[in-house]
Amino acid sequence: MNRFIRFLMLFMLIVITAIGGAFIGARYAVNNVISSKITPVTMINEGEELPAPHEIIVSSSNISTMVTEVVESVEPAVVTVIGSIPGQRTFFGFTDDQQVSGSGFIISSEGFIVTNNHVINDVKDVSVILSDGTEVPAEIISTDIFSDLAVLDIDTDVPAVAVMGDSDTLKPGETVIAIGSPLGDFRNSVTTGVISATGRMLDTGQGYEMENLLQTDAAINSGNSGGPLVNLAGEVVGVNTLVVRGSSSGAAAEGLGFAIPSNTALLIGQQIIEQGYFARPYLGVQIQQVDPDAANRYDLPVEWGAFVIKVGGNTPADRAGIQPGDIIVRIGDVLLDENTGFINALFNYQPGDLVDIEVFRNGSIEVLQARLIALN
Questions:
Q1: Residue 210 and residue 212: Cα distance in Å, rounded?
Q2: Which of 103, 118, 142, 196 is catalytic?
Q3: Catalytically annotated residue among 103, 147, 148, 196
């Protein structure tokens, strides 16, 4: 019994000692932390008073973001393009006229407007709605189907003119702003994003590819086509043209918008304004683009080029001796590869130029000469 009492007393002594030690240790730790707390230091100039440590100085100035300032400067030059497609004869009679819409922007004080070719393709009447809501008739000056560009003209005082930037200086990651009229109803809507990539190529499904496109994740919807893609300097660096929602394999995608570079738009637009049309160099062949997949599938001898399907009669290609089955691999000094396709290789030359056409035929390379003509 005495042994049990001695054990119990020893156990209680140990517990009391542990509790006391913990209490003393906790007090020490708290005091140590409090005493070592860092006091903020404010740098001051000589002669200035040091503000109290707890005082917080907040500026009440109104700060406008760069995006807001850019939109305010560019938006007056953005227009909504309205077109009317004539009704078609069907088994049940004529259908009603169909209204289509897109976007555009004013590029000169004379009233010239850039938009997409597909916005005004096949329309009989075109008008534009200015940023203040005024609707005025417009005239189609000319178009270029291969770049999907068109130039309109309005006979009225313009509210503003967009400033064109240099699209060649764009880099992936640069912030951009898309302005347009999605669905034709939400005029001058603004979306933001970045340049995802430059130099993109897309197959149009119509026998040619659109090349050197800008890719952006700024939201582009139906009706945004033809509107400006703008950088943070307030300069138009692209013309919004299309969005890809998925791949041929059925995979869905978001944030895949594409725009025509401003340098391309300016080059074509200025020529249309000056001479009433864009004279694209013409060779006179129907081609199928060759890439590594096609070369592997059809056991072709080259990975890049343009397989000639048909040669037009009395065309530059016909006169040069180009034949169906030839694979064009070079036009002048421009090699057809993953960065440059057939159309853009031709785009490096002017109607009237005499250029070497390098073709792969019957296992060997032949060099032919063709004098290009204008396609307008």
A1: 7
A2: 118
A3: 148
User: pLDDT tens digits for 330-363?
Assistant: 999 999 988 778 877 887 898 999 999 999 999 9
Joined tokens for residue 62: 């109104």
Q: Are 194 and 216 in contact (CB under 8 A)?
A: yes
Annotated catalytic, 148?
yes
Per-residue pLDDT for 44 more than 50?
A: no
| Average predicted confidence (pLDDT) for the chain | 82
Contact call for residues 230 and 236 (beta carbons, < 8 A): yes
- Specify the DSSP element, H or E, that contains 261: strand 257-261
Q: How many residues are present in the chain?
A: 376
Catalytic residue status for 101: no
Q: Cα–Cα distance between 257 and 177 in angstroms, integer?
A: 12
Question: 172 to each of 212, 236, 264, 273, how far by Cα in Å?
Answer: 14, 16, 19, 32
List the structure tokens of 345: 């290789």
DSSP codes, 179-244: EE-GGGTSTTEEEEEEEEEEEEEEE-SSS-EEEEEEEE-S---TT-TT-EEEETTSEEEEEEEEE-
pTM for the structure as a whole: 0.66
Beta strands in 60-188 (DSSP E): 78-85, 89-90, 93-94, 98-106, 112-115, 125-129, 135-144, 149-153, 163-164, 175-180
Domains in the chain, ordered, with CATH?
A: 68-85+98-153 (2.40.10.10), 163-275 (2.40.10.10), 280-375 (2.30.42.10)
Active-site residue identified among 101, 181, 189, 225: 225
Quick check: 48 pLDDT over 60?
Answer: no
Decide if 225 is catalytic: yes
Range of 56-70, 196-210, 318-332 with top mean pLDDT: 318-332
Question: Both tokens of residue 236?
Answer: 């138009």
Instruction: Please answer whether residues 154 and 109 qualify as being in contact, where contact means their C-beta atoms are separated by less than 8 angstroms.
Output: no
